[in-house]
User: Fold this.
Amino acid sequence: MKPDAPSDPTTAPPAGPSAEGPNRAASSATAGLLYGIGAYGLWGLLPLYFMTLVPAGPVEIVSDRVVFSVVVCLVLIAATRSWGALGAALRSGRTFGALSLAAALIAVNWLTYTYGVLSGQAIEASLGYFINPLVSVLLGVLVLKERLRPLQWAAVAIGFVAVLVLALAYGRMPWIALILAFSFGFYGLVKNRVGATVTAVTSLTVETVVLAPVALAAIGWLAAAGSLTLFGHGAGHFGLLAASGVVTAVPLLFFGAAARRLPMTTIGLLQYMAPLLQFILATTVLGEHMGPERWVGFGIVWLALVVLTADMLLATSRRRTALRAAQARAEAASAAA
Assistant:
């Protein structure tokens, strides 16, 4: 992701050599926090953007999003002169195969989320992203054979109880939330396996290029059926749909910039910002109803996230303590020698 991250704002030079390291670290952390807030804030505001796209439906919105994202990504590839990296990703069977799978998963995620918002189920859609960290932990056990700490097991168990409570509250399984959580969880798993060998823009370019033929076919089908709104509702509507490419790419670039500068603990805490904003928008601006039983279910989910966050902070603290102890032993051994 490094080559694609926006550059830091220029800052005044430090007062002296001794201040250079701390000043740079502080500036980088501040910039990273702002980028992170920007990324998750924009993702959190997506419901408002999708509501402006009516009367376009979920299939058209996602199809237009794919096509216009290809355009934006190719412009960014040209601007950063990353054609070589893009070509390498397309030629590598392993990388291309992984990103094609990621493309399918993110298409399911986008389509489900857009449907959830436009059908008056934005609350349930936000639930999917609240559950997502728990799903990621579970996938680590089932797929990567990772060993969970006791608090992680507790968080997963509490999350399971929350899903059952919400199933009773909704009168059905919260399928939109579960599809969103698992599709994005598997998407993250696939991208993790690809590793840092592919930049954010290169990855998104390959994924949208893979989806482009399907998206163009869907647009053609909608046009033939007389359901396409892209060209028939004025320049403003066309501009809003065309902006979906920028709406897709900018938060991803901000996230890449934040991930370069912030510890994963901070990134993990920031990720709750997007579903929280979505939840607030759904219950206030969009006017969706939250009955007492749903509040109970969401409360249990939030309890699971509190437990998971506590485990993450404790594990980070233990790692830092161990690292400082190891450094102290190394310095003592060096001094003794």
Summary: The chain has 14 helices and no strands. The radius of gyration is 22 Å. Residues 108 and 183 are 7 Å apart (CA to CA).
